[in-house]
Amino acid sequence: MRILVVGSGGREHALVWKLAQAPGVSDIFCAPGNPGIASLATCLPIGVENVVELADFAESMKIDLTVVGPELPLTLGLVDEFSRRSLLAFGPNRLAAELEGSKVFSKLFMKKYGIPTPDAEVCQTRAEAERALKSFGLPCVFKADGLAGGKGVVVAQEPDEAERALKLFFEDRVFGSAGDRILVERFIAGDEVSFMVLCDGERALPLATAMDYKKIFDGERGPNTGGMGAHSPSVLLDASTSSDVLAFIVQPTLKGMADEGRPFRGVLFVGLILEKGMNPYVLEYNVRFGDPETQAVVLRLDGDLLPFLMGSARGRFDEGAQLAWRREATAALVMTAEGYPGPFERGRPITGIQEAEATEGVFVFHAGTARGADGALVTSGGRVLNVCARGRGLSQALRTARDAAGKIHYEGAHYRRDIGHKALEILMERSGSMLR
Ligand code: GLY
User: Which fold has domain 329-435?
Assistant: First the structure.
């Protein structure tokens, strides 16, 4: 069997690593991939947005399944192009990918189908946004409608932050056409959880829960990033809340999308906020695997991922299909380049990956790496490496990952030392209340 994975980050490295272990897989290709992926797959110089070129490659090489990592090719209609050519691709088609591609579409969809989500107003002018801001009060959330590379959401706590957000969206127009419409949304305080399910258009198979940490610095300080680390399980969601999320959020989403003529296949990543630690609200949908959540989740998967991705792409899981999870916890730490999430440095030589991976249970997935002119490994992206570990419990997984990250060196390397702190605090509270 021949597989093509589309993307070039740590998420795609983890997916390639898992798929390479599936029986019957003879060849894996990755477009465009990275040096870590190149040790497991043949990397191709095709960008993720080149949907037609990707389909040409898959057709000529008789690829059995294409697995798409990032959202962009999905919103550009990769799956539609592949199905026109009778090629199997894992992910939603263009219409279903609007759940992520348009925040306005997803908010109106949730309202229509009674899916719990914070109230919001759709605004096209600064005056409309000011009116909405006045009615919700501060803190308040501003969201660009279209894809904005993870940078389209601003949470304003103070009046001057709200003023800056309004200027950003309506005067500077930094998001271009993605910001033609925005959502002004009521702020809900709580903890965020990443809830991912594999879908075949009708049924949903939950992946292990995960939690990611978005701020660049320890103590939840500094600007938001694409994600600085994750662990699985999330700890926040107990079994009963998870089954509520499935019953009251995921199933109505799948049913609603089918009723809208947009049946959802692929991975649905529901970004939840738990108000007062309990009531789940949907902050956003993503139509692809989370990054770095996937790295932590894939390491916990017991057995193969491939049959589930195949079932989803074909529009029918096998009868009784269920994913099974290892009991161990996992952690993924993101190592970043100097300057990230702003403009960052590239081309810094990286050493120590072998030493890090020498520890049992440690896996290093590449994200923003490249080969320099002399063939040496160098930094080439904002998020450079994902240092992941399995452990008997969360503290052990986190400690092992931190120790391993400490063995990797490049100038300006940064990673958070406190990933997992929210979960560990909750576990401490729970064990304290059991002792009381
Ligand atoms: N880690 C958040 C995301 O993948 O969007």
Answer: Glycinamide Ribonucleotide Synthetase; Chain A, domain 4 (3.90.600)
